[in-house]
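Notes from the 1:1 (GR / supervisor)

We went over the backlog. Supervisor wanted to see one worked example end to end before approving the batch request, so GR pasted a single chain during the call. The sequence is below; no edits were made to it. Supervisor asked that the structure be written out right there so they could see what the output format looks like.
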Amino acid sequence: MLFARGKNRWTNLRSFFININKLFLFLKQEDFTGYVHILLPNRQGLVLFQEGDVVNGLIEEGENRTSGQSTVRQILGYAEKYNDCRIFVAEFPPETVSVLSEIFSMRVRMVHERLSNEFTNLGKYVGRLNAARFTGYLDVRFPNDRRKGVEVILFRNGRITAIVAAHLQIRMDNPDKEKMERIREYLTDVQHKSLRYSVFTLE
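Structure output shown during the call:
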């Protein structure tokens, strides 16, 4: 499932005890910004909230992913149908929700899966994507540090437009020297870490 770690609000809630519709209503009243992650039989769902409003949803079933508002209704239906779902609620900065919602809305295909930083250095690969005017994203994972969750690097026409990472959430809508320096620091840091990344290009 494609998402970074948020600040846990509730973990391991059970759908047997929690009415999912009432939970969503409560989050709306709280102007909640973050996600609800629901583990379902054979699939999992993620619903993004921005100041109490549902902005996007994602269902992942094996290698298949669907997203959008209709997906949110499917997730609610599944959660009501199955009594043994596990529910996790975590807060995100607004920038993170915005980036993930944009990614969920993209029609992409995977072109490379689980490239190793040891053999295909991430920093050098980013340079290749820049030259190729790549549009899509990198799904970056750290097998030796699962606390990091998934980190995402979003590209448009070869330029990094956003990064969602454990200690960095940044958008480049209005780039400046400070943001550029933070991105350079991030890329320098991850070049030396044990990680794997998958490449998704816009269809």
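Supervisor's comment: The longest strand covers residues 53-61.
Batch request approved.
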